[in-house]
Amino acid sequence: MENQNMSASIRKPLPPEHFIVHGTSAETRWEALRGHGEITPNELFFVRNHTTTPLIDVDTWRLRLWGTGLRRVTEYGYRDLLAMPSETLTAFIECAGNGRRLFTEQQGQPVHGISWRLGAVGVARWRGVRLATLLERSGLKPEAVAVMATGLDADYIEDGVNHGRVRRPLPLAKAMDDVLVAYEMNGRPLPPDHGFPARLVVPGWVGIASIKWLGDIEVSTEPLSSPWTTRFYRTAAGEPLREVVVKSAFELEWGARLETGRTHVLHGRSWSGHGAVTRVEFSADLGATWHPVSLIGRPSAHGWARWTVSWTPTTRGEHRLLARATDASGAVQPSHTPSDGTGYQFGAVAHHPVTLV
Ligand SMILES: Nc1nc2c(c(=O)[nH]1)N[C@H]1C(S)=C(S)[C@@H](COP(=O)(O)O)O[C@H]1N2
Ligand SMILES: [Mo]
Fold this sequence. Notes:
By secondary structure, the chain is mainly beta. The chain folds into two domains: about 20-230, Sulfite Oxidase, Chain A, domain 2; about 245-355, Immunoglobulin-like. The chain is built from five helices and 23 strands. The chain has a five-stranded mixed sheet with strand order 4-3-14-7-10. Strands 5, 6, 11, 12 and 13 form a five-stranded antiparallel sheet that branches. A hairpin with a 2-residue loop joins strand 8 (about 155-160) and strand 9 (about 160). The longest helix is centred in the first third of the chain and has 8 residues, at about 100-105. The radius of gyration is 21 Å and the shape is elongated. Ligand MTE binds near residues 49, 50 and 194.
């Protein structure tokens, strides 16, 4: 039977009230986050697959560290990882193309790639071993400068070109700073779709840095590159993308119907790869006037800020709701994101449509 909300590439159920499927990937519906705390439950977390979720046998799985930047080749099994000192980190993972559809919907600019609205982001509590710990235990040389993780999913073939396995280098400084080799997501072993048995979690950086289904990690004394820095996930000028830009979204259906003449308590979340969100404002008049929202709790450095704002609409018809966040670096969401044609890093204030009835 035909079911539009299935993807042969993803293992977990994708109920239509929770997900919008885009080929081998699926985005979370923002209204599905309503009522949840800081953590996106595993069942609701978006999936971005270049090909298909592989099923990996942990009994034979090995993570291999190798390269000119190490004194020796080292292998770790699943149980070896579990036995090492662990850390827990709350962090979002967001696809660099999140919001891409708004280049077209809001700014009239054509872009290619997955037509995500704003649901290609989630926050989880990740547990695992610091990549720094693994590198040090594997005989890291002082001359090492780059680290490249490769996934065990199938080769990525696009328009007849085989780009090989999904892989992307990180500068050593980031690898040693706060990157996790995670084996747990929200208190459970990583689900297959999210990288079982182990994935990288690279806080603040575009999702492609957080390689799933880790197979091996190359450490090099020379800078490294891959199609995921030279061809994909880079600026039009050729710079590999790193931190994601500050964004906001309402926990509300796109095109929700709201009653006029009564007060609505609206909820939303804001996040940034450049530091914790410090301030969020709300506008119901397309940005002519801005009003502060109430932040819930203390925004964490790598997670998101949750907020609420009360709003009493007085007129019927089509309307737009705007939320604008500022992060610790001082970056404020602009009213327009210049398009370089890549469809990445849409950070402008989104115009969330609602119908007032
Ligand atoms: N091996 C591998 N790692 C990968 C990918 C992939 O297709 N294969 N997709 C990347 C991209 S583009 C993103 S946005 C994140 C998404 O993580 P998630 O599917 O757990 O939400 O995984 C990254 N890691
Ligand atoms: Mo991504």
